[in-house]
Specification:
Layout: E1 2-3, E2 7-10, E3 13-16, H1 18-33, H2 44-54, H3 58-63, E4 71-75, H4 82-89, E5 98-101, H5 102-112, H6 115-121, E6 127-130, E7 138-140, E8 143-145, H7 147-162, E9 166-170, H8 174-181, H9 183-192, E10 193-197
Parallel strand pairs: 4-9, 4-10, 5-6, 6-9
Antiparallel strand pairs: 1-2, 2-3, 7-8
Helix pairs in contact: 5-6, 6-7, 7-9, 8-9
């Protein structure tokens, strides 16, 4: 039996332990963010769901309503650690993804126009759109476009045809997302994402 820092391998299969994995990820995160980084006991249920999803534990994911064919939509208030957790758990993923701030994607539309919709929407590359909903509709040569809405619709179509995964983080709830993107996008979000939510009263961990 061959041991790594966070799992054992036997007969070509990987065997994980949740707390051992968290300890490994904490050390990894401390190198990236500084020695003060820590996981919080009150976040353990969220951490466990992310752990199950990214090690592809089908049976336990199914028990907790997580669908491995969908991506993760991590919802929570400002400063709760959503972006950091997606960056950290990306390390576990067999299908790693690129994290792009939604605001930056939208801003690219100003300079690159409709190529941006192709770049992020009609591609098989896996993205995590960070802070979904904070971006604004952008005008390009007089055409006002909700860039992320168009990208999400394209990626939804690719999910249906090519099993493409998309991840995202947001500070907004479902009603707020619908107000920005419309009911058509909201209905697709339900099919695209496993929703994992921090409590509304989660404190700002940056303080």
């Amino acid at each position: 039996m061959e041991a790594t820092s966070y799992y054992f391998e036997k007969d070509g299969k990987k065997y994980y332990d949740f707390y051992r994995t968290l300890n490994y990820l904490k050390r990894y995160a401390q190198k990236r963010y500084g020695p003060e980084f820590k996981f919080y006991k009150e976040d353990e249920e969220i951490l466990y769901k992310l752990y199950l999803y990214f090690i592809r534990d089908f049976a336990n994911c199914e028990q907790r309503g997580l669908d491995l064919r969908k991506g993760i939509l991590l919802i929570g208030p400002v400063g709760c650690g959503k972006t950091s957790l997606m960056q950290i758990f990306n390390f576990l993923s067999d299908t790693s993804f690129t994290i792009r701030p939604s605001r930056d994607v939208s801003a690219e539309f100003i300079t690159d126009g409709f190529q941006v919709l192709q770049r992020y929407g009609k591609t098989t590359k896996i993205y995590c759109f960070d802070d979904l909903g904070v971006e604004q509709s952008i005008k390009h040569f007089g055409n006002k476009t909700n860039v992320l809405a168009e990208i999400l619709i394209s990626r939804y179509d690719y999910m249906r045809s090519l099993h493409l995964i998309t991840h995202a983080t947001t500070n907004l709830n479902a009603d707020e997302l619908e107000a920005i993107y419309g009911n058509r996008v909201r209905s697709r979000l339900r099919e695209m994402f496993n929703v994992i939510s921090f409590p509304k009263d989660t404190p700002d961990k940056r303080k």
